[in-house]
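ok trying again, last paste got cut off:
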Amino acid sequence: MTGTVRRAGAFAAVGTLAVAVPAATGFRSLELATVAAIAPFVLVAALGVTVIGQDSRLFDLFARPGDYEDGKLYGLAAFSLAAAGLALLAVRFSLPVPVFVGVVVVVAYGNLGQRLAYTVRSDEVVATAGFVLVGFVAGVAGQVLGTRIQAAVGEGAAAVDMPLVLFLAASGAFVAALLRSVLFERDDPLVMLTVGLLLWLFFELDPSVTAQRVVIALAVTVLLGYLSYALDTASLPGMLTGVLLSFLTIVLGGFGWFAMLISFFALGGLSTKFRYEEKLDRGIAEENEGARGSGNVLANSIVALFAVVAAAASPSHIAVDPLLFFYAFAGAVAAAMTDTFSSEFGGLYDNPRLITTLKPVEPGTDGGVTWQGVAAGAVGAGIIAGIAALTQDISTVGSGVILLCGLVGMTVDSLLGATVEGSVVGNQGVNMLATLAAALTGAGVVLAVGLL
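nice, full thing came through this time. structure:
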């Protein structure tokens, strides 16, 4: 067993202390319950920085490379204090205790799964799969065990909402894996706190999910995520971002919503690869051989993700018709597809003109457009509008609104590219603002023409 596996196992053992928190809620005094919940983690943190010396076996077991410089187990202390912070939220505030347990073990055991996977095959994708798989299983087990323990001390319901448990465990595993892929792996405290707050939000939404939909969503998104990585249309962080967004879209939105999103991911990725060598020669090709990173995927999809979550929160938490958020979602995806098609296909043609002055510019100039690119963008928006019409109960006018959103997004992207890109915002910021403009257009037009 390698040192990294032993260290991961030791941190997993510390994470297992989370199962004591449900029992602590059985104390009648809130103060005693709080002390009992956070004391194990605070004690571990204190031992790491004050008692455990650098010459002991325990130090070598828990030490990360940076800990040797000062002779203190700062990594262990940070991990434990992050868990203590979440435990405090669980006991004193409304973070569900079983969800707290699930979050801690997702991160702790997911790390162990990643290290074990590395011993089988030294491959980044395999290691990440190990993190997600083991973290997911641990998250399910932690939530179930936390519910049972809390019920045994008379502080919670004995029934386990298994579809919700599966949804939260999968979301937590995906988010944690994504954050670890874009941060340093030793930033587990930040990962744990972020996942905890996000799953708290999802729990409060009280989404109507079924176990069947969650399982199907897992199977579909993991398969498509692997294909995107294998075909080099996305980097590992980009693939994880797409998987997470697709999973949430299926579970919270539905398969019709997902059909639009996956069409953008698939066709957008393929359009980037189209005549890639020629784009390289023209200086307009995407970096990393066209493999989209997490920033690019998020910039094009974050507005759509907010629309999905908002739809799940309405009308129970937001007094708005969910259909309004559907048009915002479809409009944002149409804009992302339109912008991608217009730039990837339009950039292959000569004589682009700056959208603000119509003067000829060099290919690849921000804000430069060609009629071929505009036509390709219109086709992209039409694809999303057509998918929406086939999968959702919307009128011809509704499809036209989505088409309009795509064209608005493409225009806004070009206008921002010609005016503020590079000096005020970057390319990813422009993409996000364009999808936001399209989403607002969809919502505004739907309200104006009375489609709700």
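cool. The chain has a mean pLDDT of 88. The beta strands are 353-354, 368-369.
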